[in-house]
């Protein structure tokens, strides 16, 4: 039973990645567009930005970003159903679309046909979604639809009917079953939603009452959950629901969730009447910039300075790549996994430092938001936005850099941590790989060679059940974990090896993991 729940939540976390990636992309589009549409000072300095063509392109980017932000519940429902489906995933996605539309229509029928029922709900709970007046269930409605749609799909996609109805059997029955279920579900979900929203609202009040500690709790929790892969669930619950706030804009429309609220601000260049900009961005990526661009690179420098002199040349590529990946892409795992398993206690301390960074940025009223904790996010949402007060994040970053370097160096020396260059496995990986180009003439492609080595390290093709990935980790389900050779896995250039349970492992490769996954899948075919 424990194994089942671990696998389920691993899959659920992976399901959140696609809509979150789309959300980040939409935020970037809105951020770029808003510079051209609303940044008066920049338009005065660069008159060409006022041209009709430039303004048209900016408006187009603004529209594209809005399409994604305005339909997040639908995107979540599709992504969850697709990821959680066992087979025939495209039909699961179609079923989720039909199910979500049926849910909206079911709730619309309830409040339209029964005026007495409508009077039972506060007027602010109603909204128009995809042209349908319905109950505003936000992202939670999309998540619930995706979960139930996946369950329905897995139950009925192989159903068989008598000959007269055989055409409607199998995968064709998936969207039909979703429509029938969610129209009926829409008759009771508004009442259930009142109960659920009260629970979420209680959580939101708890976060609100935490004051300056709310960003600390968020930042600490996110880093602590990262090795398990469940941080995406944490991010979605905090950032995309009313836990991080419900904004009321001057025209009366409401938006819930920090990411959606900030995107709406970028789109219309108007702040909500009930929230300040620091309150909007306190759970966004600005609070992480002092870590990704300052603290982590300095911790890499601490590992280099404490390494054995004869090993420094060998570990320099690892640490430089990790530092630049953190600064440029905001991907932290390559460096974090160099010390996670060496000293879990230090990783907890590091998580506390993360939380402290978020809290200090909020305490000093930083207004730097966005979805990118890297140089792009700093430039786009900081340098190009005078109202961002980006210098606060830079000042906190300098403090975090000194703190990270000093504390980590002291910790390494005091407890003799086996970080890279001090007796870790990394410097031995090139010697234990076991596969060279001379072993196979067809292995002249470096990517193909890496994929072959990964498969060998995982115990061979017959031992691999499924292969997938998230932003930076290869997620593998194996038949027998005893056949996995961790040393060979590390020799493939991985930055971390995480055995989740007896059959599931995660291997950290950084931003190239999607390419590696495709290469491995190609070799498995």
UniProtKB/TrEMBL annotation:
Protein topology in the membrane: Multi-pass membrane protein
Domain PTS EIIB type-1: from-to ranges: 448-525
Keywords linked to the UniProt accession: Cell membrane, Kinase, Membrane, Phosphotransferase system, Sugar transport, Transferase, Transmembrane, Transmembrane helix, Transport
Active-site annotation: 470 (phosphocysteine intermediate)
Transmembrane segments: 12-36, 56-84, 91-111, 131-152, 164-185, 191-218, 289-307, 327-350, 362-384, 390-408
Cross-referenced SUPFAM superfamilies: Glucose permease domain IIB (SSF55604)
Location of the protein in the cell: Cell membrane
This protein's name: PTS transporter subunit EIIC
Organism: Citrobacter enshiensis
